[in-house]
Specification:
There is one protein chain. Helices cover 46% and strands 19% of the residues. It is of the alpha/beta class and 332 residues long. The chain has a 6-stranded mixed sheet, with helices on both faces. α4 runs parallel beside α11. The protein is globular. The N and C termini lie far apart (65 Å).
Length: 332
């Protein structure tokens, strides 16, 4: 009898819970229709003034106009993007806190360091917005004008040639490791704190080569201070139309680009995610936005929620295997 009474007493509670869930489910589409009703914070995991910051500022105004609410840019650098990613992963699941996503925030840093979030499960992937090509450049005094000549030079004296990156596990570091694996060469890695000091030392002849972000290299390539041998993506970049891709030059499938996307906390309602994705898509389609990004050396690269999630999965699988095979570890 006691068990029967207990079951009977529990039924109203279950009915209340089911009713509450039903009401919440009905409210989601209504919230999505009115969303947003306040400012949206866009968290930048890199320092203010860098490429990600410039990208965010370029698209913030058209996004504000489309959504009718201000896009507030907040920089939270540190922890190799982990500080910003953790903040967004733990934010309310309402679409008002977004992350400028990258390979570092979602799988490179979680692979190399202990973080407080899961780079895949703790996020809803809104859209891919842009990519920055990486370019294989050598100092002007290096006696290598083509990739085959560079490979021959590297094989002649293994470990003598040095290549710069912007830190352990960065895209330039991974590109350098992939280049060595695909060409059977041995180079010496020299990590820097950013693209600027790496470029300075490359021009000064302190290091021999690098596969670095195109924007800070362009003026030096045009001046002849640096020599571009190949683009590290599957298609040529409009900024250097005469420079072939490494894939074209025989390194089939060589594709290490720096991409940027938008992520929200996991559990953000899908209608809100879709509304954000559509607003970013329309913003990136603006000729004015495209022109501004091109001036920064950035290619617009839009993928919707499903395609973006699939891209991240493939990139994480491919580069994760590279990190493991190359024995890359986090910085001490």
């Amino acid at each position: 009898m006691a068990a029967t009474a207990s079951l009977a007493a529990g039924r109203p509670l279950r009915r209340i819970a089911l009713a509450a869930a039903a009401v919440a489910a009905l409210q989601l589409p209504a919230r999505a229709q009115t969303y947003p009703t306040g400012p949206i914070s866009l968290i930048n995991p890199y320092a203010a003034g860098g490429p990600a910051d410039a990208l965010a500022r370029t698209i913030a105004d058209p996004m504000t106009a489309m959504l009718g609410q201000q896009i507030v840019l907040i920089s939270k650098p540190g922890g190799a993007t982990a500080i910003a990613a953790s903040a967004v992963a733990n934010a309310p699941k309402d679409g008002y806190t977004l992350l400028i996503a990258s390979a570092s925030s979602h799988f490179v840093t979680p692979l190399l360091s202990k973080v407080t979030y899961d780079g895949i499960r703790d996020f809803a992937f809104v859209c891919m917005i842009a990519s920055v090509p990486n370019v294989l450049v050598v100092r002007s005094s290096l006696p290598a004008r083509t990739v085959p000549e560079l490979v021959a030079l590297a094989k002649k004296d293994p470990g003598k040639l040095t290549y710069g990156s912007v830190g352990n596990g960065s895209q330039p570091h991974l590109a350098g490791e992939l280049f060595q694996q695909m060409t059977g060469t041995k180079l010496t890695h020299v990590p820097y704190r950013g693209a600027a000091p790496a470029t300075v030392d490359l021009i000064a002849g302190q290091i021999d080569l690098g596969i670095l972000n195109a924007p800070p290299l362009l003026e030096h390539i045009k001046s002849g201070a640096l020599r571009a041998l190949g683009v590290a993506s599957l298609k040529r970049t409009p900024q250097l139309p005469d420079v072939p891709t490494l894939d074209e030059l025989g390194l089939k499938g060589f594709n290490v680009v720096t991409w940027y996307g938008i992520a929200a906390p996991a559990g953000t309602p899908q209608p809100v995610v879709d509304k954000l994705a559509d607003a970013f898509r329309r913003s990136l389609a603006s000729p004015e936005v495209k022109a501004k990004l091109a001036q920064q050396g950035v290619d617009t690269f839009y993928l919707g929620p499903k395609d973006f999630a699939a891209y991240i999965h493939d990139d994480a699988t491919r580069l994760g295997a590279l990190i493991k095979s190359a024995g890359i570890t986090g910085e001490n």
